[in-house]
Amino acid sequence: MSHHTTSVDMMRHSVVLARAEHWVMHSRGGRRYRIITAQPTGPAPPSGYPVIYLLDGNSVFHTMVETLRLQCHRPDKTGILPAVVVGIGYETDGQYASDRFYDYTPYPNTKFRNKLDGDSVPEQGGAAEFLQFIEEELKPQIEGEFNIDRHRQTIFGHSLGGLFTLYAMFSKPQAFSCYIAGSPSIHWNSECLRELEQRYADQVKEKPYPVRLLLGAGELERPHVTGNCIRASELAERLALLSEYGMHAEFKEFEGEGHLSVLPVLISRALRFALHPVQEGDDHHGEHWH
């Protein structure tokens, strides 16, 4: 009885995400970020590519890019245009870095304790500095390397990143045209966030400005002690009252999903929300608000 063996090439190769690259960027404030980018194939449209700035880039960049690439080939069917994705991460092999506590929080939370050792409190309260880095340092570099449509810029953040997304919208609504806040940590300093919200509401009534906001959370987050799922729902209801001043706010609760499992379905929904093809008569540039 003869035995046939199959010849197998045992050379192993790393899997590389096509048309993607990363580099380390030093901010003026002395902080270091791993910037990860992915661009579509083919020439950009006349107005340039839409762009998504993605927080916690180490953890969700590949999920975002693959979800986008899977669906953007037929925008007429999927409702999703090709876009440049810019992940903002850190120099770590892990999915998250403690630096995010500083970058994503507008104000310190004096009650926070590290879950692992119960004592150490990461530095907090650097959201203004981080937003300035994005606006004045990162965006010019990205716009110098890619053909970007500045009228179609999205920021996506989850958890503490969702908190920063809300902070950015309240503080500088013109920074992005679309804001995606997943399971936002509204509890972090809810009183201060309400003050920012009120200031934003007062300003937008004086000078209307078109902004789109998608808030999302998992159904299984609803009973959590922070109450962030309910807080996010209530926030969307309050902001919806500002629709005549340019605010479009939606809240989506995803059935059967928890704080982390919500990410893939939220990303898919966010892409349709942010990258829908412009129909004739749409005014995504917001000229009539100026």
Strand order of the largest sheet: 1-2-4-3-5-6-7-8
Low-confidence parts, pLDDT < 50 over ≥5 residues? 283-290
Q: Please tally the β strands and state the result.
A: 8
Quick one: biggest sheet? Answer: 8 strands, mixed
Helix content range of the residues, please?
25-40%
Portion in beta strands: 15-25%
Structural class, by secondary structure, is: alpha/beta
CA-CA gap between termini: 84 Å
| Total number of helices | 8
**Arithmetic mean of pLDDT:** 89
Q: Given the C-alpha coordinates, what overall shape results? A: globular
Order of helices and strands: EEEHHEHHEHEHEHEH
Radius of gyration from the alpha-carbon trace, in angstroms: 20 Å
What does this structure look like?
34% of the residues lie in helices and 20% in strands. It is of the alpha/beta class. It has an 8-stranded mixed β-sheet with strand order 1-2-4-3-5-6-7-8, sandwiched between helices. β5, α5 and β6 form a beta-alpha-beta unit. α1 crosses α8 and α5 packs parallel to α6. The longest helix is centred in the middle third of the chain and has 19 residues. The chain is globular. 37% of the residues are buried. The C terminus is likely disordered.
Keywords:
290 residues; alpha/beta; eight-stranded mixed β-sheet; 8 helices; 34% helix
